[in-house]
Amino acid sequence: MSEALLALAVLACPVGMGVMMWLMMRGSKNSSPSAPDPSPATETELTKLRAEVDQLRASERDSGQNPPTLPSKSTGSR
Fold it and tell me: Which of 30, 34, 68, 69 makes a 20 to 30 Å CA pair with 21?
């Protein structure tokens, strides 16, 4: 009886791993390869956001401000 439990314990990991791999492969076949088309509401919001970005860029350019820049990395010796 103890030998059967030992064999069951030894086989539990590889069998479980095989089942998990099978489930993952099965799940990837059901997903669609292309992205779904955006809804009209999403397109409208995207258009509004693009217009707002354009307005902000124009106002920044008109006021003469420079866009924020990232600090340069110092290459000092260690």
Answer: 34
